[in-house]
Write a structure and sequence with these properties.
Length: about 400
Amino acid sequence: MKLHLHPLSLVFFFFFFFFRPTMSSNQHDYSDALSKSILFFEGQRSGYLPNDQRMTWRRNSGLSDGWTHNIDLTGGYYDAGDNVKFNFPMAFTTTMLAWSVIEFGEFMPSSELRNSLVALRWSSNYLLKSVSQLPNRIFVQVGDPIADHNCWERPEDMDTPRTAYAVNAPNPASEVAGETTAALSAASIAFRSSDPGYSQTLLQNAVKTFQFADMYRGAYSSNDDIKNDVCPFYCDFNGFQDELLWGAAWLRKATGDESYLNYIESNREPFGANDNVDEFGWDNKVGGLNVLVSKEVIEGNMYNLEAYKASAESFMCSLVPESSGPHVEYTSAGLLYKPGGSQLQHATTISFLLLVYAQYLSRSSLSLNCGTLTVPPDYLRRLAKKQQN
């Protein structure tokens, strides 16, 4: 049986280059970490590989994906040490990859910015295929996880079933559709200047995908025909409401549409986003949601969204050991710790949020207020850097 690993920490070395270190023998080479993190995506590719594939030991694989439904579902990324394409975490990885480019792309070397956009397009192209039969159907997974996890083999050699799992209206898939909405919306922003036509295609499909997510509310793992194949791998443990807010928030960022502003404002409490949350990952988006929306308050003076900023500040303060009130747990050596598996997923995602929030504060010449303690943006950066080191 394969050990099931969450691969989502793959994207978060992108912000390393933000530190722009001067290299010496006792410092980490962040630019090298950035390069290797982007390169890793090429090792996870499914489908027909391009001529400029740098990991030349990889070959074409998964070329029949989608044939049982008469649809092309080739492409995308394999999940971890397996050959399954789980759309829920893949969409989250896509969102985070795009967010990394949006916030820190200007600090990347031009070659690595190009490589990161290539990596982003590889997944966004696949997600476009997965929503191509909307408004009536969304594809949420390719590959039988039980058979796959019981057979360790190269993608090029796999002989396990390439089952394509679909959710048909009116059955719900709000968390997958909501996260796919976020991914396509964020990617549309990332490609806006370099490929405006593609950016518009992504945004149009994001709108359509959100309509499906919101109209048929519920968890995809509640569907009898697929729940035994999505659980216990990436079933919806945390509820689908955070993905609806997350998707709407990214649509708001991508479009500026007031309807999405009203959606995230009016549904914050009904959808449980007012709870204190000290995590951010493929299943729980509230921490990232609060940080993302807080930018509208910090830089846009949208004080009707002040509650999101207050939650973001509470989360940030819980990461500052010197502040009063409840704190997240750290190991004796200083690593952010949360009980359970996939430990580095938490350290990397939360470090990313620290850097993004520091970026928002810096642009407006603000600091974080934790009771009587004033925390400057550079402190948040140092805290994130300590985690990555």
